[in-house]
Amino acid sequence: MTVKIITDSAADLPAGVASNLGIMVVPLNVRFGTDVYRDGIDLTNEQFYQRLKQSKVLPTTSVPAPNAFAEAYDKLAQETNEILVITLSSKLSATYEVALQSIGLMKGKCRVKVIDSRWAIMAQGLIVIAAAKAANDGASLDEVIKITQETISRVDFRATFDTLEYLLRGGRIGRAQAFLGSILKMNPIIGIRDGEVFPFARERSRGKAIDHLYKFATSFSHIDGMAIEDATTPQDAEKLIERLSNKFPRERIYRSNVTPVVGTHTGPGLLIVTIMGDKK
C-alpha cells in the first residue's frame, strides 16, 4: 500500500498540489474573539485581511483539536497501513505534540510516524511535496522518512514584510527581537534557524528587500525546488518570479499564498522565496 502523507495548513501548500499528490491537510484555527475559523477553509485570504484591517480585536491562532488528526488517521487507515505526518516547527506551535498524541485516539490500526519539519510555510511545503512524491513512487515509510529528513536540511527561505508588530504580538518573534525599536519602520528580512524565527538582514526600502530575496535565491549552486508566496502583494510576487525565471524554470516555481494562520503573525505585505537545493 502507498504511504499516505499528512501535514498542517501552515505549510501553505497550493490546493491543486495537495490534491494531485494526495496530501491531506489538517487546518489550524484562526480566532477573532469568539469566532473560530479553520485555516484556509472557513475564511478566504481576502476576507481575513479585510477583517484584520477593520477589526478592533486582533486575531490569534490555535492548534487543531486532537480529534482532527485522529479522524484524519482513521480515514487514511482505510486506504493504507502506513502514514507519515509532517508538521510545522515545534518551536512555533504545539501542532507536532498534538499530532503525536492523537495517535493514541485512533480507532483503526495503522503505523503512524510524526516528524517535526523545523520549518513552516513553503519550506515545510517543499518537504511535504518531496515526501509525497517519494510515497507515490512506491517508497516504504522508512524510505520516505529518510527522504524527508534529507530534505529538511536542504530547504531555506527568506521573507520580508512591513513590520514586526504582528510577530511581536503573537509571541512568535524569536531572535528577531534584535530588530525591534526603530527597525519596526524598516523592512526586516527573516527566516527560520533551528526551528524559530531568525533575523537575517534589514533593508531601508521594499525594493531593496525584494532585491535581497532575489540575491538569496540566486546564491544556490543547484536548485531542485522553488516557491514564491505573498499575502497581499501579488504584483511583487509576479515580478520576483519573472526575475528568477532566468535562474529556474518558471513553470516549476510553486506559486502560493500564505494562509490566514500565517498572516495572523506577519500581517499584510509578506513576500517569501523558498528554495530546496544546495548552497554555493
Give a topology summary.
Elements lengths: L3 E5 L6 H7 L1 E4 L2 E4 L2 E4 L6 H10 L5 E3 L3 H12 L4 E6 L7 H7 L9 E6 L4 H16 L4 H12 L2 E6 L4 H6 L16 E7 L2 E8 L2 H12 L2 E11 L3 H11 L8 E5 L2 H7 L4 E9 L1
Parallel strand pairs: 1-2, 1-6, 6-7, 11-12
Antiparallel strand pairs: 3-4, 3-5, 8-9, 8-13, 9-10, 11-13
Helix pairs in contact: 5-6, 8-9
Attribute tags:
single chain; 280 residues; alpha/beta; Rossmann fold; Hypothetical Protein Tm841, Chain: A,domain 3; 2 domains; six-stranded mixed sheet; 10 helices
Would you mind describing this structure in some detail?
With 280 residues, the chain is of the alpha/beta class. It has 2 domains: 4-28 and 63-152, Rossmann fold (3-Layer(aba) Sandwich); 155-279, 2-Layer Sandwich (Hypothetical Protein Tm841, Chain: A,domain 3), CATH 3.30.1180.10. The chain contains 10 helices and 13 strands. The strands form 3 sheets. The chain has a 6-stranded mixed sheet, sandwiched between helices. The radius of gyration is 18 Å and the shape is globular. It starts with a strand and ends with a strand.
